[in-house]
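Input (structure):
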């Protein structure tokens, strides 16, 4: 049956304290109890509608978490101060010293650095694999593997993870499949394809206005309870709490996500199609030439487009720098990291968001020094945008390779 994340979010209706259409924002770190016994009870287990302290949960954060839980068809969710907060606390909930993680090698550089440099200090080690080669993924799993980790659409190469196949591999080995769905909110619903935990950087498409950093974890009731456990939960004890004023503004933006995704996707498809027709090597999963086009077509929820992320390989770093400077001059967008903003953003991942990944590993993954990652904006006149891009390509002397 078709799943419709946008109507799940639409049906999330909250009446504020005074009937406000936007629920009142919680402006308290702590909450009163009518009796000491009730407080003691809350330390033992969660009580629906009762709040203790904002590092654990507060009503505004709970509203946002509930909406995201509905969007992803999960049982429960927690919101965090950043996507990295969501990823790190999830992995620390699932892994202890001596445990292993198997992870796709084409991932966000911050996640790579966490797995490669920080977690080994706590005895948790990671094998990086080509997530599209399922035999290699299976071969990397050992009895100590607790987590198979991937991005639904990888950063920055835009490879599509075959979620049902990866879930089967993880579960056969007694591991959990954790999916970073930051690039494809609403487009993909990983929990419905067998994933156990979904994480997002809310900083990106879900918020959409590049004015804050936030994250979330969606999973089973049991997993979120472990994440938040007062005595041992990494979220509770490491404390990456989202401020409730931010949670309130992200919740408002979430309600227009489906409309924004359609425009991001339509613009990206138009630009990728034109660039490909001109002979430029462009990566976009909405193109029939993309190796994972039909896989994504099978897995995606219909009606939200193919996503707003596109990559263009211009060969070398100097050419990429020349082109990006001209694109910013001609108001195509901003030379900036991050994504999901209403304006186009572009950057060379090899020298920014993926620079944590060693050169040899980037080369093995096919991440060239001249790869420019674009997060395509909500431009009203994308034909004019394409005309500007063509002028910049000519001036930067980027020649079509006739792929
Ligand atoms: N996951 C992906 C795919 C990202 O691109 C990023 C940030 O760029 C993150 C996670 C980390 O999110 P945050 O910057 O909100 O901590």
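Output (sequence):
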């Amino acid at each position: 049956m078709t799943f419709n994340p946008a109507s799940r979010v639409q049906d999330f209706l909250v009446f504020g304290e005074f009937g406000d259409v936007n629920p009142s924002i919680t402006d308290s770190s702590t909450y009163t109890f009518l009796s000491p016994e009730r407080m003691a009870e809350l330390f033992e287990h969660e009580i629906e509608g009762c709040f203790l302290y904002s590092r654990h949960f507060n009503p505004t954060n709970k509203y946002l978490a509930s909406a995201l839980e509905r969007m992803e068809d999960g049982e429960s969710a927690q919101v965090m101060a950043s996507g990295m907060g969501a990823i790190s606390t999830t992995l620390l909930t699932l892994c202890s010293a001596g445990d292993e993680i198997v992870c796709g090698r084409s991932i966000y550089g911050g996640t790579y650095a966490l797995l490669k440099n920080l977690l080994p200090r706590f005895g948790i080690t990671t094998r990086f694999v080509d997530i599209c080669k399922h035999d290699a993924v299976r071969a990397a799993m050992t009895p100590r593997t607790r987590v198979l980790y991937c991005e639904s659409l990888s950063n920055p190469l835009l490879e599509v993870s075959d979620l049902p196949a990866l879930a089967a591999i993880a579960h056969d080995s007694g591991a959990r499949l954790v999916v970073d769905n930051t690039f494809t909110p609403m487009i993909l619903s990983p929990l419905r394809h067998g994933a156990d935990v979904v994480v997002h950087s809310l900083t990106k498409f879900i918020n959409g206005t590049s004015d804050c950093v936030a994250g979330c974890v969606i999973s089973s009731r049991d997993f979120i309870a472990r994440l938040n456990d007062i005595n041992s939960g990494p979220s509770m004890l490491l404390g990456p709490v989202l401020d409730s004023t931010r949670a309130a503004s992200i919740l408002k933006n979430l309600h227009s996500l489906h409309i924004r995704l359609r425009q991001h996707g339509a613009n990206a498809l138009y630009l990728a199609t034109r660039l490909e027709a001109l002979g430029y090597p462009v990566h976009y999963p909405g193109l029939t030439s993309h190796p994972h086009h039909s896989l994504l077509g099978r897995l995606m929820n219909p009606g939200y487009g193919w996503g707003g992320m596109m990559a263009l390989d211009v060969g070398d770093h100097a050419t990429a720098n020349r082109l990006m400077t001209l694109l910013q001059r001609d108001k195509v967008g901003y030379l900036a990291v991050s994504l999901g903003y209403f304006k186009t953003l572009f950057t060379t991942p090899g020298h920014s968001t993926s620079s944590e990944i060693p050169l040899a590993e980037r080369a093995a993954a096919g991440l060239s020094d001249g790869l420019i990652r674009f997060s395509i904006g909500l431009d009203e006149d994308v034909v004019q945008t394409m005309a500007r891009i063509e002028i910049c390509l000519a001036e930067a002397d980027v020649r079509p390779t006739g792929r």
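Notes: The mean pLDDT is 95. Residues 5-254 form a domain with the Aspartate Aminotransferase; domain 2 fold (CATH 3.40.640.10).
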